[in-house]
């Protein structure tokens, strides 16, 4: 056997340190490990590590307990793989029974698949005596994408990123403030000047006291000229501060709104790029709350509070300087409460931030109830569950109150404490000042000026401490916004996109597997659809037909295997460009708020009226549209409330036809229309599907008789392929489906109201 | 005690074999709990490899010992819901976050993708789904130690 001719196992594929010594001791000279899997569960499903390794001579395994086992390659030996609820299982079997079993969590699935591949290769080579053949060195075991030589991880598969966003989220908001940096700077300078202007009056009190009032008390007449000068100065300072303050507020308000708008748009734009998987896991209300109210809070923080804060800091600095310059000792006493306040801030900050984050989440919960109930209002009313929904809303609100109460408890204590500290500070300054005056170290004027400054100074401290709350609120909001912005789409844009000029419409599914979370829904599906072919996809409800279509449209990315269009992996095509070639009619037709014409032209907003009408005609929607009071200009409500199910379906067919796609996908496109209309649509479609690759899903098998090939699915797998006659002749799954339906038609005719219709009737009745 | 009208055994491949009252034999039978959270010991269905229900056990406590042992053994080997006893460390309070936890099945780490992956089953019971679809159970929130509760609280 010429196993030595194998390319050496890629570097970096060494088993973990723990096992290496034990493994090395067991390996025969020249024997090398080709693939391995570190299992992290034992037989009883306890977390414990073990190892399974494929060498060029045998299969070696060590249990968590430390016992080694080995199997040499034999014909009947088989390594089987399946998973359930996040746990993968490998079973070693021969013809007579199970030899061993290994369990691991699904995060290690890639390694497991690699082990199986390598095991099968080695077994076959040992059994038949031929050296190991490797197909085109390395396909990714998971997605079957070709790997560069020596490339260990498939670039397409290893995109899962688990880097938590940094806690300095607020700094990242700079990205949104940057375009406005000059205006922000102007606002800041204005603030600064306004602040400086407000520092003038207290300074004026000093000469006013010492040069006018005190001399008067000592018997000298008032110098009116001097008084006029000082008062004039005070007035000018006030006017100056007023003008500056106005300019500043105006500029900052402008900037603030713009930053907010940018932030919202950026978040929404990013949100729309995320995959369906993301939306599947999120609640509408939550997302709405994030984009709506939280961006608002952030932008106010950015443009107002942040500047105020900087301003406060400067102001405190400037005041301190002035104070020190007037009298250093008194200044020192004044600054006494500062460290205490700093300490207080430190104590409450963390509590506040987590508190506010909670408040945000709960708020989202409240919005969630709304977003659930309002679209589902028919069901709520039909089952008379208004009370219960109110109860749910009340509960969410109550929760909201509770969390808010907790935050407020901390917060309400904080503010007055700061005020108390400043009051006490004022007292100390009074006492110290009087003492100094009595010893003639300072004049009364100096003391008054000091007190005037200090009240401002402490006011600033107070407002600065308030910013703690605002900052923490903004930080909490920013975190939730960046949660969206940082989310990498699970159907990402390719790094080096391939552009298809002309799409032929050939679709290939190669060993495709797909999982929603930990539920395997599609398993090893292989199918090639030729350009222009009409494929009928049939199977029981829940057999994975819609899912397969979702994969072709790349609404989700395959978990294993690959989907190719015209020979190119869909993952390497730009998403939007690729979808433009697909006309899709969804099982649940969705209409946007707008006119019928707008809805039909959704995929191609610049379509002419003639084109819109042509598409509507083809979809047999034209006549019913004309019957509406405003024809094509009729407004259809949110979720298409004003139209019947079949009418909505026909509009979405028209929408798909309008973009003249190379690939047409009809998922139960005509399930809600009567048989008559269906036949007519069918006739129209018959013309339209000419030259297009069409995939049609239908439960009424009769509608698919024209299909070139019927693909029968069952529990995520393709069980039969062929045209109607072939499949009928085979008397397999399709035959049974067809028979069952033929029988059902008779039953339906006798039984006017099948029990399953009760629920729907109820919904409509509402 | 009602005697079931079917027989269950295990074959050499380790899978369950059900022999129904009519004599038909099904291999690779899988027991499935109807209410794994709300009522784990009631309503257990025996499902064939192709997903059809073959038999129904009303209450696990009322079936013969041997049958119950087989069913429980099979359930145990399929069910994997580690129960979190202590949260030792979380990498960050922003998701995705990696948690180091102690469970009834040993120490493990899990990656939480978003707060919405923590599902509240009742006031004090939580189910935490990790990125790979493994569910971790927190049976009683109040039974956790204070440090764990504090960590967890940041995500609720
Ligand atoms: N978003 C989802 N998350 C989790 N599971 C899903 C999701 N969508 C579908 N499934 C599951 O995947 C399986 C296949 O669903 P799919 O929608 O593909 O069925 P289908 O063949 O189109 O059925 P139908 O004829 O009723 O439309 C079902 O068992 C379903 O429960
Ligand atoms: Mg479907």
Task: Set out the fold topology.
The complex is a heterodimer of chains A (766) and B (156).
Chain A lengths: L16 H10 L6 E9 L5 E9 L2 E5 L5 E5 L5 E7 L2 E8 L2 E9 L3 H20 L40 H4 L1 H4 L3 H37 L6 H50 L2 H6 L2 H43 L1 H7 L2 H37 L3 H6 L3 H53 L5 H42 L21 E10 L2 E11 L4 E6 L5 H8 L7 E6 L2 E2 L5 H5 L2 E4 L8 E2 H5 L8 H10 L3 H6 L7 E2 L8 H14 L4 E5 L7 H14 L4 E5 L11 E6 L2 E6 L1 H7 L2 H18 L7 H8 L1
Parallel strand pairs in A: 10-17, 10-18, 13-16, 16-17
Antiparallel strand pairs in A: 1-2, 2-3, 3-4, 5-6, 6-7, 8-9, 8-11, 11-12, 14-15, 18-19
Helix pairs in contact in A: 5-6, 5-8, 5-13, 6-8, 6-13, 8-9, 8-10, 8-13, 10-12, 10-13, 12-13, 17-19, 21-22
Chain B lengths: L6 E4 L5 E4 L5 E11 L3 E9 L5 E7 L5 H14 L5 E7 L6 E7 L2 E7 L5 E3 L5 E4 L5 E4 L7 H8 L3
Antiparallel strand pairs in B: 1-2, 2-3, 3-4, 4-5, 6-7, 7-8, 9-10, 10-11
Can you put this structure into words, describing what you see?
Chain A has 766 residues and is of the alpha+beta class. Helix content of chain A is 54%, strand content 15%. In chain A, strands 13-16-17-10-18-19 form a six-stranded mixed beta sheet, with helices on both faces. Chain A has a four-stranded antiparallel beta sheet with strand order 1-2-3-4. The radius of gyration of chain A is 37 Å and the shape is extended. The N terminus and C terminus of chain A are likely disordered. With 156 residues, chain B is mainly beta. Chain B has two domains: 73 residues; 70 residues, no CATH class. Chain B contains two helices and eleven strands. In chain B, a hairpin with a 5-residue loop joins strand 2 and strand 3. Chains A and B meet through strand 6, strand 7 and helix 10 of A and helix 1, strand 7 and strand 8 of B. The complex binds adenosine-5'-triphosphate and magnesium ion. Magnesium ion binds next to helix 14 of chain A.
